[in-house]
Structure formats: C-alpha cells, structure tokens
Predict the 3D structure of the following.
Amino acid sequence: MLYREAGDYSTSYPEDSQTFPIKFDRYRYYVILAVAFLVIPFFINDYWANAVLVPFLIYSIAAIGLNILTGYCGQVSLGTGGFMAVGAYACYKLMTSFPEISIMIHILLAGGVTAAVVTLFGLPSLRIKGFYLAVSTLAAQFFLVWMFNKVPWFYNYSMTGMIGSPERTVLGIVVTGPATDAWAKYMICLIFVTLCAVLARNMTRGSVGRKWMAIRDMDIAAEIIGVNPLMAKLSAFAVSGFFIGIAGALFFSVYLGAIEVTEAFGIEKSFLVLFMVIIGGLGSIFGSFAGAAFMVLLPVLLKNLLVGGLDWPTDLAQHLYFIIAGGLIIIFLILEPHGLAQLWRVAKEKLRLWPFPH
Amino acid sequence: MPDQVLFAAEVMLNGLMAGVLYSLVALGFVLIFKASGIFNYAQGVMALFAALTLVGIMDGQVPFSHLINAIFGTNIHHFGWHTPALLAIILTIMVMVLFAWLVQRFIFRHLVNQEPIILFMATIGLAYFLEGVGDLMWGSDIKKLDVGIPKGMNETIESITHGAFGYGFFIDNLDIFATFVAVILVAILVCFSQYTKQGRALRAVADDHQAALSVGISLSYIWILVWSIAGFVALVAGTIWGAKSGVQFSLSLIALKALPVLMLGGFTSIPGAIIGGLIIGVGEKLFEFLVGPWIGGATENWFAYVLALLFLVFRPQGLFGEKIIERV
Amino acid sequence: MSNGSEGNFVTTDGRNIGGVMMEMKNITLRFGGVVALENISFNILEGEVRAIIGPNGAGKSSMLNVISGFYIPQEGEVIFQGSPRPSLKPFEVAHQGIARTFQNIALFEGMSVLDNVMTGRLTKMKTGIFSQMIWAGKAEREEIENREAVEKIIDFLEIQAIRKTPVSRLPYGLKKRVELARALAAEPNLLLLDEPMAGMNVEEKQDMSRFILDVNSEFGTTIALIEHDMGVVMDLSDRVVVMDYGRKIGDGTPDEVRNNQEVIDAYLGVSHD
C-alpha cells in the first residue's frame, strides 16, 4: 500500500514520456536530490568523500558513458580506462596551458576532446562487430596508455612522468589540489553527475536513444527503417566519450590530484567500469548508479569486514574481492542480464500489487 | 652481411619463437570458440591457474592455506613432500578436467542460446573469479616452475651462426623446446579432430549445434571435452611461460597477446591461429627493433592490437576466417 | 501486356490508380556463380497492391531486397518516381519513403511496442543530438507530434492494449502486426511486405488481409507484397508478378496469371479444370 499508481493517470503525452511517470517516484527523486545537495555536504568527512562518495560519483559518470555505448547502442568497449586517461590528460594540459580559464570549462572541454578521440576509435565499428570490436577497443586502451607514458609533451616533461593537478578555484572555493575540502570535492562531482545523468536521460528517451537501441537490437533492421548506422554508432561513441572524458578529468583533477597513467587508467579500469554496467544493468541510467555504488562499496566493505573486523591480511581480502566480483558478473549474466536496475523494477512491480498479488 | 641485417634476422627468429607461444594460447581460444561459440577471455587465466596448480602440487603446498590460516589462526603451508613432475602434471590435468566440468555445469549450461557478446562478458567474469581462486588456493607470490625444460642460450646455433656470419645468434633453448611442443601439440589436435570419433563429433557440433544434437551427440559432453582440451593447452602454455619468467599474475596477460592473434587469424581457424601468432610475434619484435627506438620503445604493448585492428578494417573475417554473409 | 500497365485508371472498387511509381528494368542479381534474379522487369503503379509470387527459391525475397536497397543488382536499373535511382544504402532508401516488413520478424526485441513503432518515425524526426540533450523545447515538441502520429497507427491496427509491453513478450501474430505498425509509422509511399501472413492461422490471416486492404484504401499507400497463400494473393492484389528460378514467367491481373499456361505449369501445377 506504500507504493501506488492507481489514480495516477497520464493525461497528455508529455506526462506519459517523463522520466518518472509515477508520482511517488518523482517525489522520491526530489528528496534524493535535496539530500545530496543540501544535507550531505554538511556532514561529509574526508574518509567518506575519498573512500566512497567521490569515487562513486565519478564512476557513475563513467558507467553512464559506457552504458550509452554498450547498454544502449550494443557496442562493447574495453577501452574505458584509456579513454578516461584521455580526459585526464586533456584536463591537465588545459589546466596548465590556460590557468586563467575556469576548471569547470576545462573539465567540459576535456570531455569534448575525449569524445573526439573515442569517435576516432569508433570508426572501425562500422566494419567490425561484436567481440571483434570489443577486442579492437583494447587497441585503444593499450595505445593510449603507452602514448601518455612515452610522449613527454603530455606530462609537461616532468621528471617523474606523473601529472599533478594544480590548485584551482570555483567561485573562490578551492576544488583541486591538496588543500581541497571534502565537501568541495563532493559538490563539484555531484554537479557533473547531475548534469550528465540529465543529459543522458534526455538523449535515451528520444529519437537518438531509439536509434541506438535499434542498432543494438538488430542493426540490419535498423538500417532498413532509415537509421544511418555509421552516424548512430559514432554518435554513441562520441556521447559515451564525452561522459567518460569528464569522469577521467574529475578522477585526475579532483579525486586523486596526481596520477601515473598505467596505474590509474590500466585495463583493470576498463573492466571495472564494464562490471559496473553489467551488474547495474545494461541499458539503464539508474543501473549505472547502482553498479557504480556496488563496485565502489564492495572492496570497502570487504576491507572493513575482513581486514578491519577479522584482522585478515589485505591480500586475502583482495583475492576474495576478485572471486566475488567475477562470480557476481556470471550470476548476473545468467539470472538477470538487466542487472540491479531490473531487480529494482521487479521489486517495484511487486510493491505496486502488494498486498493483493492477484 | 651488415650488422643491422644480422640483428634484424636474430630479432625475427626470436619473434618467431615468441609467436609460437602466442599461437599456443590462441589455439585454446580457437578450440572453445569453434565448438561452442564462446570467446573465452579466461584462457590466459586458465594458463596461470594451471601453472599455479602445477607448482603447488609439485611443491606440496596446502591449497587455501592462507585462508585456512586466517580463519583458524593456524600456520600451515606445506605438506612437506614433493611430487615428481610427471605425476604433478597428471594431477593438474585432472584438476583442469574438473574445472571444465564445473564451468560447463554451473555457467555455460545456463547460458545456452545467449548472444555471443553475453558469453564473452561471462568469461571475463570467469577470468576474475578464477584469478581470485588461483591466488586464494596457492598464494599470489611469484613462484619458480622447474619441470626440467632446458633453458639458456643454445650454443650450437650460436657457434654455427658465428661461423657463418661472424655473429652468433642468441636463441633460448626454452624457445626451441616450446616450438617443438607446439608443433607436436598441433599435430595431436589435428589428428584428434580428424581421425577420432570424439573429434568428428566435435567438428559436427562446431558446424551446427541443432544438427549435431539430432544425430545423438551430447552437447554437454562435447563442451566438457573441449574445455578440458583447452585446459590442457592452457597447462602447456602456462608451463612453458612459467618456466620462462616465473609463475605470477602477468602470466595471465598472455591472453591479451593472443587476442590480436585471433583477430588476425580468424576465430575459427587453427592454421590461422598459428600463422597469426607467427606474424604478430615477428611483427612486434621487428617493429620494436626498427621503429621502437624512434618513438620511445615498449611498443609491444600495443603493436599487435593496432596491426590487427587495421587488418580487420579491411578484412573483417581475419586471414582464414569464414566470410560472414548477412541475410535479412 | 495486360490492361492498365501504364496506370491512371479507377479500379472497380473505386480506388484511383496513378502512374508508374517504380520501375524495375532488366534487373540481374548474382551471388558468386548463382544467378538469383535474371533480367527481370516490371513496374509498380501508384496506389495499387502488387504481389510477387513464386515457388521457394524463385528469387522473390531477393527482388524485395533489391527494391529496399539491401542488395545492389549487378545489372539493370531501378527507376523510382520518374528518375533512375543510384545505388543507395538501405537507410537512404528508407528516407525516400520506402518501408518494409520482414519474413522473419525483425522487431527490436529489447524495446516496448510503442518504442518500436516510434522507430518507424525516425526518418521524420530531425532534431539534432544537442536539442535532444536539452529535451525541453524542440526535441520534446517533436516527440509529442510524432507520438500523436504513432498513436493513430496504433489505433488503426488495434494494438492499444499492448503499447507498453516489451516486444519480446508478444505472440507471433501480434509481432507481425507491430512490425506492420512500425512500417506504417514511416508514412511510406511504397510499402513492401515480405510474407505478411506466413505462419498465421486463418483468423489472423483475415485480420492481416483486412489491415492491408485498409492501408491501401485509406492511406492510398502503394503496396508490394510477397505471399505464399494463393487465395490471399488473388483476393488482395491488383496485379501479380510470377517468378520461377530467378526469371519472370508471368505478369498481369490475378485472372490473367491464373490462366497463363507457363505459370500453371511452373507454379500451380496441373490445372484442376
């Protein structure tokens, strides 16, 4: 009886195609936004920001990006780590070359640069399909990481080969560099997450999203009803790249502050984000958040429980993490290919009917 | 002959040897893909797991000892015996067969008729799972594997080339051994698939699942068989690689080397896997030798992929793959 | 040739048939050594229901695939609305106003019925990706306009009740109807139907026939269809092309075709007179 749609009719098409057609969902969404923007910033501390909330928000953006490409358009990419690196290095070059321009603009531009690079690597998708394409995105992963490692221009010829983010402010508040407050890190990520989620939702509910899904479900039929496959795929690559680039830029500039490319953006990152998308739910924006939350929380929980609670060695917790993550991927693919998002939907459907299931 | 050419020739030879190893791993992929349409990303981790198990059994390690110690506060590590190499290999093969059965029973039986890309992602999950299990069972420290494979520079070749060109080629005995093993393995596999009843059934399944079922071939038996063979190939690859550079996590990365080999050779062709492996082995070593110094080196990380990618754009089915015809 | 092959007349049931909409001229299509279509010529008149019949392997589907741009013939010319058509990609053909259904249903299984039918409107939806990102304004307006058009089709084909159902959950007959809806949503000039009644029971066939005739008479859509069921073809179509082994062996009204000796021999078998 808590969750009702009776008496909640759509009387116009705009109402019917809105994001949360059921009133209860709409209110809950506003409450979550209010808590995220108005409550959490006052209570956040360094541990929560660095261990959980900031990585969760950043990975959510990356997962939304990959979900658009893989979940909506059906093109599996294993190059997410390399693409995030593009965002990070673009942001670094922009920050150091044009220090007078706002970091917010730099992050957006880094997204744009990444979109261009990802589109370039998406070009073969017209000829190569399925896992051939998945494997060929590994070319991007390895090549990009190698390039950022070997071409000194990208790291401004620094001796260590690492890049570090200089201090920048937004409206007088420090958002990058070691002096950043936890809440400021959190807020800037939150703003970008909200922006990205809204943009992604808008694109996936209209004609662009339908083009992507048509390509995903049956590319030949999509072509015959008038979808230009090259444009549809490349637009998915570009949009996905934009989000992943923003995630990479935030990951470097706001979250870590200093990075070494092989360590921060290796192939494990590609898999991590792919796992988020699978576990959260392919083809669902909400799923991207759920998957990111799950994959960020899992190691933190294991560590607290096993290392902190039972005093086990850290490498054991690490091995168990691999087993659980891998096992969950398999279980989700077998039982619920639409991930946590679908479990949530099913739960809601049950709730709607509860307590009279027939 | 000018030195540069001699160096290049030596590099090529070493590339060929490395290529043989790539082919060996790629072979495991092709076998599973042909029979079940599964693109098994976990092949590399299977090689690592097999090598870990082999070392563990040989050294008489207690499986899961770290976990047991952590839970019960004990301090056990070894049984205190050493198993002879041959017995250990047989035991490891048995473990790999058991693994094949488990994989079939608990994973792919539930994923019949799924899209290939879903199966592919499942094997990525399997790779993570197996890596965790391997580390948990045997520990994640770097281990030495010594099953009596000869190592070190081959002096005969060195002295012959020295006599002929005035420059001795450095070729590792291990690589020569690996080449022989690979050739024998391929010969056995070809004979198996051409001349035995199981081999015929396997080819039938590869051709058409439905038709194979209808003439009374048990799919699940064939798939367990194929995964077992792939496990065996993984063991061979893991043993050779492990003897070369120790058994450790990086061993699983040979899978990443085998992927471009497959793209080049086609996922369904055994000759393709072999020739693709050789092309990539030679190509990446030569590229590193000739172009690497100009652009910062370490090009082996990506060269194979970029080569395969460029190649695929012009010939999407690979060198020997069957042409894909699309129908409405 | 038969009467009316030049077009511009009124049928006995009062529909206006216009001039030649599409003309196939000496089409030859080969796959390697196999000749799928050999020197085939026929035309489709504006407003008519044109059927292509023939035994299995006669090349009917290949013919349809040539029209919808999926196969490019080695020889011959396709003249569409008066001008020769260059070899277009399938999606460009769709933008010319040619829509089709498939022999084996080709719906987007991961989407709802409504979304599937909405994909039929993609050729009509022009807002760019940036307007889509913003949504409010242009993109939303366009979405609503097209939604209204789609709802009319949904009403017309009587599939209101399953609007929000995922397509993968529908039975076969309904899937066929949704596929027709998707093709109709494009408001095509020429509608190609590849065996619209394959695998249906008698009632479903009757429903489908009614929809096809209604589409033709209410929207004036030109229809070219492939069908196996002789009775259905003869009742539905204005003119029939008969194919066998990649060649055209007959062309004309259902009555003419029925009495053509070559057609009887090749396709209908021994006459029952």
Notes: Residues 43-266 of chain A form one domain.
